[in-house]
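USER:
Try writing one entry.

ASSISTANT:
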Amino acid sequence: MLPRMNIAVLGSGVVGQTLADGFLGHGHHVWRGSREPTRSRLGSAAGARAQVGTFAEAAAADVVVPRPAAGGGSRKLELAGADALAGKVVLDATNPIADTCRCTACCASSPPSTTP
């Protein structure tokens, strides 16, 4: 049996909820980070292994999963704060489905092909 982890899912949408539910289903403690923690759907139904807080509060977990919505993953990491993320494992849950990438970090010099 694998050790139980303290995992933060940054984002309160459907994909973030699905990720959190999956981690909870495997016995992990899950933090949900949100801009509006009081509106998050994770809470009492998940029991004591689930907590909701701001991005910075959630980033106290050992593993951080920023759930990018419309390119917002990097913004969520900024809101969590560099100090809170120092030394953490960050899992990128990005699933690029746009026709073109709008990223300036990796695609500025070579835009991705839209040919299947």
